[in-house]
Each structure stands twice: as structure tokens, then as C-alpha cells.
Write a structure and sequence with these properties.
This is DUF2065 domain-containing protein. By secondary structure, the chain is mostly helical. It has one domain. Helix 1 runs antiparallel to helix 6, helix 3 packs antiparallel against helix 4 and helix 4 packs across helix 5. The mean pLDDT is about 90.
Length: about 130
């Protein structure tokens, strides 16, 4: 459980900040999503980083007993899958970015989910 709390302490505040940022500065994040898919090197670099971080997360933490463990393990697997998708199917990144920016409700929902998970992980790491 020590590694779980360590990772929750890292990912929780980061996810909380991103979730709040997406909600408060929606236009900025829409611009990021729009521009991201148009830059092949950025898509490749993100994909490679996501693969490495996802694999590291899975190797260090592939535990499925408690809710924080499940969230962190799932996050590692999703990060790996997103990284693989960006490196193997880069056009997908452009389409997903376009879809995210065209559906403003989806950005609001995503920001809320990310912020809630961030609050929960931060709370788990520092206040449990």
C-alpha cells in the first residue's frame, strides 16, 4: 500500500490541477487539443512518453484490491494504451482531439471526472 499512497500523492494533485484547469480555462485546453493532433512530432513524443510512463506504472503498481489501487492501476494501463494508439495510429490522435473540441460537453464532463479523481487520490495520499 506504500507505493499506492506514493503514486496517489503524485498523480492526485496533478490530476486535480488539470481537471480544474480544463474547467476554468476551457478555451486554452481546446486550443491544446486542436494543436496537438496537427503536430506529428508532439503526437509521437507524447506517445513514447505515455508508453514509458504507462509501463513503469504497471510494473511498479498493478494492484486491484482497493479503490486507490484500482484507479492507479487502471490509469497505468490507459496511459499505455493511449501511448500505443498515438505511436501506432497517429491519425487517431488528431480525430480524438477534434472530437473533444467539437463536443464542449465532453470537455466539461472530462474535467469533472479528472478533478474528482484528483481530489480522491490527493485525499487518499495525504489525509487517510
Amino acid at each position: 500500500m506504500e507505493i499506492t499512497m506514493f503514486l496517489a500523492g503524485l498523480w492526485g494533485p496533478a490530476m486535480l490541477a488539470v481537471g480544474l484547469g480544463m474547467f476554468i480555462n476551457r478555451d486554452h485546453y481546446i486550443k491544446i487539443y486542436r494543436e496537438f493532433g496537427r503536430e506529428p512530432f508532439a503526437v509521437w513524443l507524447f506517445g513514447m512518453a505515455a508508453i514509458v510512463i504507462g509501463v513503469a506504472q504497471i510494473n511498479a503498481h498493478n494492484m486491484w484490491e482497493t479503490l486507490p489501487e484500482m484507479l492507479l492501476s487502471l490509469f497505468g494501463w490507459l496511459l499505455l494504451l493511449k501511448g500505443l494508439a498515438c505511436t501506432i495510429m497517429p491519425a487517431w490522435a488528431e480525430r480524438s482531439g477534434k472530437w473533444m473540441t467539437e463536443n464542449s460537453q465532453m470537455l466539461i464532463i472530462a474535467s469533472a471526472i479528472i478533478a474528482i479523481i484528483g481530489v480522491y487520490l490527493t485525499w487518499s495520499a495525504y489525509f487517510m
